[in-house]
Fold this protein.
Amino acid sequence: MLSYIEPVFRPPSEWKSLILQVTNGCSWNKCRFCDMYTQPQKRFRAQKIEIVSAEIDKTLMLGVPITRVFLADGDAMSLPFKRLEELCLLIKQKLPRVTRISSYCLPRNLNNKTPQQLERLRELGLSLLYVGCESGDDEVLARIDKGETYASSLVALQKIKAAGIKASVMILNGLGGTQLSEQHAINSAKLMNQAQPEYLSTLVVSFPLGQQRMDDGFDGQFQLPDQQGLFNEMRLLMDNLDLQRTVFRSDHASNYLVLKGTLGKDKSRLLAEIDQAIEQPSSISLRQEWQRGL
C-alpha cells in the first residue's frame, strides 16, 4: 500500500494512473475559491527522491502493470528542472512500460524553465500538463488572488505547446460571480483562442467549506449565478470560442449540463444543447443537486 499525505487530488482522467506524491500541497495556496490544500498537514514541501523511489518499488511488488503516472500534489511542476528530470528518469528506469507522465501545472511554475528543459522532460515521458487557468479575465484573476494574469497564462501555454507537451486547461464556470460573468466568459474564450490547447474542460465553481474568502475578494459578497445564469455564461463562452482541434469536456460532477465534443467541428451542436437547456430545461437531462457529488 502506498503512503500518502491525505487528501490527495487528481484529474478525473487519471483514474487509471499511478499517483506519485512528489510534492505535498500547493506552493501558492492563496486562491480564494480553492480549499483543496488548506489543512495543516498539506503544508507545501517537496518529497525526497528516495521516498518516491521506495513508493515505486512498492508498486512493483504488487505486479500490476503501470502505463501512466500522475505527479501529485497540486504543484509538482514547481520543482526545479533537475529534480523533475531525476523523477522522469527514475520512472523510465523502474517503470519502462509507462507511456505518459502528467502533472498539474500553475503557469508561474514555468517561469524558471527554458523551452529546451521542457523538451527534455517531454523526451523523458512528460506529455500532459493540467493547467488551471480558471479565467482569462484579469479582474476576475485579481479578485480571486490567483497570482496570474491573462498574459502569464498565455506565455505558459505557448511554452508548453512549443515543447510538444499537451495542455489540458480548466476554466471555472461562475468564477466571476454575477458581477463579472460576461467579461469572465469573453476573456476566457479569448485566452483559449490564442492558446489553442489540446484539451479544455469547464467546472462549476463550488465552496463546500463556505465562501467567505470569495466574499472578501468581491466587495463583501460573492454571488454565484443561478443555474440559468451558469448556462448563459457557458453559452457566451462557447459562442466566443474559435478552436480548431480541441477536445472539450464539461462533464465533471459539478456541472448541471453535460457537454462533450471537439471544437470547432461540434460547436454548433454544443450551442444547440446549451440553448435547449436555457429555453426548455425540462426537455433535457440535467443533473439534480444531489447528483452533483460535491
Q: What stands out?
A: The chain has a mean pLDDT of 93. The two ends are 27 Å apart (CA to CA).
